[in-house]
Task: structure prediction
Amino acid sequence: MPSRNAPAPGYTQVSAFMAGKVAVGIILPESNGATDLSTENWSAARINTVISEIQAAMTWWNVQNPGGGLSFYYDIHTQVPTSYEPISRSSNEDERWMSQALSSLGYTNPGWSTQAYDYINAMRTNLGTDWCVLIFVVDSLNDADGKFTDGYFGYTYGYTIVMTYDNDGWGIGNMDSVTAHEFAHNFGAADEYCSPGYACCYGSGQVGYLGIANANCEAGCDNNGNGVCDGNDSGSTNCNNCPTCVQVSCLMRNGSVSSGLDTPTRHQVGMRDTDGDGIQDPIDTIPALTLTAYTPDPTSDNTPTWTGSITDIPWDSPTYSDVSINYITAVRYRVDGGAWADCAPGNGAFNETTETFSCTPAALPDGTHTIEVQATNRAGNLSNIAIDTLVVDTHLPPAGFQKTRPANSGAGFSTHTHLWWEASPDAASYEFCIDTVNNTTCEGEWTSTGEAHHAEVNGLHPNTVYSWQVRARNPNACTSADGGDWWSFTTGSGAVSILLVDDDDNSPDVRSAYTGALTALNLPYHVWDTNRSDAEPGQADLSDYKTAIWFTGENWDGSTGPGLGGEASLAAWLDTGKCLLISSRDYYYNRGLTSFMADYLGVATVGGDAGNYTSVTGQGPFSGLGPYALTSNTYADTINPSAGSVTGWRDNNGNSAGVAFDSSVYHTSFLGFQFEAIENAADRQAALARFLESCPSGGFNKTSPSDGFVGNATTMTITWEASSEAAGYEYCINTSETCNDEWTSAGTDTSTVLSGLSPLTTYYWQVRARNAWGEIYSNSDTWWRFTVGIPLYLPLVVR
Result:
């Protein structure tokens, strides 16, 4: 029966049941005599014989299992060097020569077991198989008995089979039987024989993925329960008191492929078809499909796109972790009972056990429509049919939406800034108006941005209040943001607030990527060139600037990135409420993980010279940007955020390529790739604009009541200055200098009324401004206090 656990085989799930594609790795070690005397030497003819015997075993299994869709793929390595002569060692010493052999193939992690799993999983990925098995064959041609020194010759570790060339008395001509027997163990089959002093089967318990009793266990073994068949056992009863065990010839009992397979063994490796539909139970699985209801409903979009996800539900194993190899092969939909059509895979192809999809029908007429979606898996089984209904009305106006930044009533903004707003459902385009007359009407002209949810405005006057509004349009009507309310912001003095620190090696000179973006954004800047040295700006040099952008290009020598003095200056400067962007692939390479990286950039760990990603996508405060193609990724790093920071950019492999840190006083962002490698100039401008717009204002202050105020009113209005770039404000009031309760939103207002205050009580209060990066606290995080005295009243006198 199906299960609800995660479906795809994991790192150690390499042979759960015998169906599908199997990768077989064959390694024949060869001693080089460095540690042990070399007594065996493979010949080409005997190597070919070994490979043929192993492949014959796989062919035999294919014949036994026509319903499993078995196919085998090989990865063969012969005469792999080791300093040991394996056959001269005990089987307990396998790890010595196996580890050396796997290391020579490039798998060098500590421990032979980890090496083996690394190898077979790489083989599984490279060959595109469901399962993977490793087979070591040790040369024993010149050995007296064809066994290891402790008497073992053919066995498995569950994922790695070990055999000798002679396999005791079986001989090379029967290696196919020994291989087939050990291969069955890997896929869950149990022994059915009893060999005195070697091994005994058990007739009880559940074996294999399907949990099958070992009902053909040989009679007369281990009756006294000491783990071996010996002279103390009686031959008159079945193993472990299994009176129901049958006595049938089988590969797992007699060891030869000529013995065939009995029913218990077939079922133990997964060859059982309970419902008789021609599909073996472990792969007779059903996908579960989830369809996301389309919003908004109703909609004016007559070509809506539905999305959803599909997961194949594994067969519920009583013994193993549930797993499925049935990837999704198709997802189809139909509208209003019409013809079925294909949905699109979310990742480009339907080839995994868990998939996402999208379905976009042709233009729908106005009215109510029903969509049905169904998926098919590799076994040909169909999922549930998921259904959604949707009303299409092409005469709907755009839905309501909000402006987001600059924050309403904010101050200190650049004379070149960006306006941002949310998307409006059913909108075909947007237009904005900005002017200096605060009368809720557009005194200038409405400017279209097409489908974009932001606009770049240039040439604003310093120290000027601007009002702005956005409206969404479609062929039917237009809708103004925020219910028609206009927002305002005030520009700053227009002074230069950006310092560009050029720390590259001029080979190539990458400065133009930064100056070009800043010029396109109409932002003035100054340049500090370190001339490829530690001649870096000090705290006094930095003090006049709100933002520093530090880049190192392809420089990788000892001066790359801020040195100890530069880091100390940056730390002191940041503590005054500043903003820092560092783009460097070799800052970590040359300086290591410094305290400044950890404490001020929010870096936990760095994957040096990862160099394997080709694009980056914005996360956290950079969400919505990208993916951006990179023209160079050589020596790029992966940078993992600490507990207080977040991933700012993620590469196409899913790793963190940059971090963003909000301390509540300053903001920093550290990129492990070259910012200048972002291929498109417009993309570089958008990324830099997002960073600059999210920089803190340098702090703001509470205004009233003054700190230490004493009054008599139990209702009081608290006020504070506007913080530039703030998206909103929150306040907290308490009887101590901590916020024990939740922070209360004040929206975009810079004041709020407190009521219900208690007489003879001292209150502490604090305000913080928030935006996409987080928050910044007023008065450099200093709480203010006021005291409510005895309320004034006129006494009632009765005579």
